[in-house]
Design brief:
The protein has about 180 residues and is an all-alpha fold. The longest helix has 23 residues, at about 75-95. The radius of gyration is 18 Å and the shape is globular. It has helices at about 10-15, 20-40, 45-60, 75-95, 110-120, 125-130, 135-145, 150-155, 160-180.
Length: about 180
């Protein structure tokens, strides 16, 4: 007899009822994924750990609201919380000092989101996305894949809101031109 696989959604419902074992299982399953995605956005391991902790604290407190989010899967809901917590942490840090962007390590491989998006959307759109400048792809990734607002994207990327809007517009025009 095959063991029954419990989904993240089922774990979240159990967590909403105060089930600590379900919380432990959700953390074990999803924290490596969330940490990896957070590291793609932030090079500061300490901040990533802090955001991860804040994310799961929020999950424990708000798991009951999961069912009210239309169409959200468990992992997507968790990432939305983590991304917003990262934006909050970066915003708080910016109030204290400016974050130097020259200290961030260069990426040696394309982000997993880029690879997945290119494969999921088809060859033509995938090629058009790959041809975009990295700064335009970053804005699209934050706003489209992560579902962040212009303000949150600006904080995450460390650029003014106007720059985010301009990059989003340039990306849209470039994609439209490449696909027409």
């Amino acid at each position: 007899m095959k063991p029954t696989v419990v989904t993240e959604e089922q774990l979240l419902r159990r967590i909403a009822r105060g089930d600590r074992d379900a919380f432990d299982e959700l953390y074990r399953r999803t924290s490596p994924y969330l940490a990896m995605r957070l590291r793609r956005r932030c090079a500061d391991e300490g901040l990533v750990a802090e955001v991860l902790q804040d994310t799961f604290l929020s999950v424990w407190r708000t798991a009951g609201s999961f069912g009210s989010v239309r169409g959200a899967g468990g992992a997507g809901w968790l990432w939305t919380i983590a991304a917003r917590r990262l934006v909050d942490a970066l915003r708080a840090r910016q109030r204290v000092r400016e974050v130097p962007t020259d200290e961030l390590p260069a990426r040696s491989a394309p982000p997993a989101e880029d690879e997945a998006l290119a494969g999921a959307v088809g060859d033509e759109l995938g090629a058009a996305l790959a041809a975009l400048a990295p700064d335009l792809r970053e804005v699209l990734r934050a706003m489209v894949l992560d579902g962040l607002t212009v303000r949150e994207t600006a904080v995450l990327l460390g650029v003014p809101e106007g720059t985010v809007k301009t990059r989003a517009r340039r990306a849209k025009i470039a994609l439209r031109g490449a696909l027409s």
